[in-house]
Amino acid sequence: MPVLLWSESDSGSHDDRVRTTRRYRFGEEEHRAIAEDLDREIDDMLDNALELVISVEAESQAELAFVRRWSLGRALSISHLLKSTNLEPGEQKFLWQALGAKCRLGIRNSGLTNSSWQELIPARESDPERIERDVFARGLWLQDQELKDAQFTFGSSLTNAREIHTRSALRSLKLRISLQGWLQNIDAQSRCRLLDFKEFPHLAKALAKRWPGRGPGAAKQPVHYPQDELDEEVQRVLEPIARSILTD
Amino acid sequence: MASNYQPAPSDMVQQVQSIIQSYGDNGPIRALAQEPVQNSLDAKHASPIVRVEYRLRKQESRYEGTRHLLTVTDSGTYGLRGPALSQAELSERGYELETDENWAAFEGQGFTKKSDDSARGSRGQGKSAFLYHSSPPSAPGRRRMMMLYDTLLADGLYRLGVRNANPVDTIQSPPWQDSEAEELVSGQFTDETGIEIDLGLEPLKKVGTRVAVPYLSEEAVTAVKNGELVQWLRRCWWRAVQTGALEIRVIDEETRREDTVTVPSWWQDEPWIGSQPKGVEVRSTENVDLGDGLRIKRIVLIHDERLQSTDAESDDAQFEGVQLLRGHQWITTIGSGDRELSGFIPPGRRSGFRGFVEFDQSLEKELRNLESPQHHKFDRKQGLVQAIYRQVESAVEAFAKDLGWMQEPARPPTPALQTDIAREILQWFGTSGKQPTESWNCSLSLSFPDSTVARVDWGQLLENIQVLVTSSSSFPANVTVSLEAQHVDESVRVSVRTDEAISFYNREGNLKVGNLQIVRNAARPDQLQLALQGKWKLTARVQHDGRQVARASRSIYVHQDPQNPERDPLTLSISVENQTRSASGRERINYGERVAAQINAHNNTPRVIDVSLNASLSEATPMLADGEPRSLRGTPEGDTSDQHAVWMGDIIFVAPDKLPLPDENAIAIPVEPGRHQLNADLFDTDGSLDSAAASYMLHIEVDPPNQGGLPFRLDQRPDERLPRWQLKEIDGETVLQFPERYATNRELMEADAANGTERRNSFLLEITCEALIQWALEPAWKDHDRTRLDDLCTSEPPGVDSEKWGRFVEMMELLEGAGGNQSEVPYIDFVEDFRNCAAHMMRMYEESH
Questions:
Q1: Under an 8 A CB cutoff, do A223 and B614 touch?
Q2: What residues 55-74 of chain A have any CB closer than 8 A to a CB of chain B?
Q3: Does the model's ipTM exceed the 0.85 cut?
Q4: What is the pLDDT of residues B110-142, one digit of tens each?
Q5: In the predicted model, is pLDDT for residue B419 greater than 70?
Q6: Backbone angles phi, psi at B775, to 5 degrees
Q7: Does A25 reach chain B within 8 Å, measured CB to CB?
């Protein structure tokens, strides 16, 4: 999928160029027509993400960050940008770069700017790979669950979400459903303690030890279990850790 | 209008396509830029300049919509002189033409000859360049091509010819002449199938030739409109334009755009003559003598700082490097990043570096014979061409020294020669580019008197000896099996069976030897004399058409208890082959391709072990095996363990949102494009043994980081404190790092250079062999994963001494046990075994090269 990669000159004017992995004879500009169409679709997607953010009342900055990330993922998912027949394997990185640049610059295809898009991605993460991994890919992953469920599972903490998301074997929705189910059976005060960003990593580590991403034990991952069996296994793995955290 | 088409004996459509495909990437447009102009220059008149005009005309038809006609017209040439000869006349003359018989040569295809080497049209490239781009209406599923050509000669003769490829090659014979020809050219022409072609061209007024391509291909239309054709013309002909011998124009009548082919900015005003502006460095080496009266006329090199930031795909970037010109025509480029020059030109300087080489007349004549018919490369195997390359390298080296580049630290971290050597070694050891074709397997089964130990005493029987051979071919012929025992210390050999033919049924064949009594003295037919006490190897070798295709060995301890090397009790490995493209599973796998996977286990304990198997492709579903029970036969103590295929099957990967194709014989796994690990776990069901795990990285719809499936790439690190070598995982890629300034590295390289044996770089050979051992064994030491070890050990290189390869496999297996976590082998012994194994690998490699 050819994309428009926007940039800002020293004088503050905006410029764009076409990037693609497709073959071309003369230059990437040959694919500008598709890139322009895509750029307009991205405009709609980002507007949609903002609307989703606005529709939720967040109580803290951390919760707002979580909502923004989820909203961006949901808007991306609804937009079908990633399922476009124009998107060829290997081109996704350009899409993330283009999205990142548009958010940072707040630049629409028409050339007008919308500075509120800048709020959708963290200002400090300018490395394209981090933008891809930490923002767009994680947003998409978060929105597998409805917002309320995702907030419940991770205590509205992006840090907690990252603890699970960075471990590839733990990424399946099934595991999050089991985790959510397990947390639902715990009283609110204890749950709050377990979802504290200092304690949650212990739970994530125990799960990762049970389901490593590589080496011995990697051949059967949470995604391969029936949901009820996985629920039981998650409970079996987490109960001792939770007891230990709560009695400290 | 008389019309008589004369068939020439060929499927012209196929021939044209194959000629143009031989130009490689961008071939059709390069051919269109190169061949017509080449033909015009070959027919140059005494006039000082040849003019060539490409003209694109848009044509509208009520029935056929929009189409395009391309004409290529030359002047300053003789035109297509000489008589139009019929097939009979050509045959009578033995297809031998005189120098000035251009018409007949142009109409000939691939078989006409000339008495001099400026053969217009003799090789068929020129005609193909035109025909390829013509696509007139044809029957469904068929392709046809057509071109028309008219010429005005100095004596006033006017001729029009037509060539059709439908798909048989036909030409208009005799051609139309004079007023009839002029009338057709300026009006309408009806072809053999009744298609009316509106030419509407002005008859030629100047002596010369015009070729018209009706129904011009979309590719050519685009190339004219977006300037690509002009770029190719500039790339090919800038020097001829500069010398004033040639003028080329490209005209698009629709947009009224007219481009004249110009000289690239950096060569304008012949910068090797006179002074240069700041930031531009030019050196010219003139009259380089190559012996035998052959001379390079000039090597010109330039570095212009202003050319620094070219896009890799832009036209300017195509000039990066040194162009070799023949007859003022670009033939090929030695790229500034190519092996020959990369060591002299720092990466940061490459985009601003240009050069060209031209030759004197006698050398040009020689080179013409060493040039491809497509005029796009010289035969690098020829000594003369190699000498030219060496001279260019020398000139570039001197240029780089002069500009102070040789002192710059920007020299690429791993010189191309080193990468090549490592690649050669790795490829020879079969870890890269293994192309499975016909596969063979061999197993040797026998029963010892005590099934738990590989010992037999004199007088006892080895029972049920059998060699089982499997082949991917159903009924292979000429397959023989030999069986031989060899004492490992004394090198005493005893033949059991020699070249016994076996027949195959359902891909399997076997040699049943039966029972043999082991004796110390002379043996009867049902006995085997193994006179020495100690360890023997019983080896079966399978030959197909005289070539060894498989082997299997068993260890036998005669009258002695085995000295059992340390072994992991359970090991596991995975092998993968892409069956659709007959490629190794370490290469890219595309959606829809059928991949054969096999998971193999070894039980190194003497008892039967019940295990359960899990296998999956990382987070994808379904699992390949979910707790599937298996029973693994034991291995007698001291013997080589059997390989048990605990899972085998075909897999087809599909896009997640696509419905898998129904295929009863393959498992469809939906998966996103990317790197995915095939994982397998084997658990001893009674829990008394460590589990074994194996993994195999698959690259689905993406290219693997190490091109060609190499296990690792070399990275020579400048100015870093590193051990002699180390293997590191960097972003999913395995890298062999070694320090540039390591003392023995430098010394050995210098010694190799002094001996003229750079390509036998001893240091690289040693560290590559050592790293290969480490690469193959590390997963085995860590997770009992023999995937890489099996991959390496089953890749016996062609031509290697089979005994030595067998010894290598044994050494690797010894290291596998000795390097494990629970090994009690002293470290010093392990290191010695490791070095011995590397030395053995080096010896095998050296002996085969």
A1: no
A2: none
A3: no
A4: 544 444 444 444 456 788 889 999 988 887 778
A5: no
A6: -60, -40
A7: yes
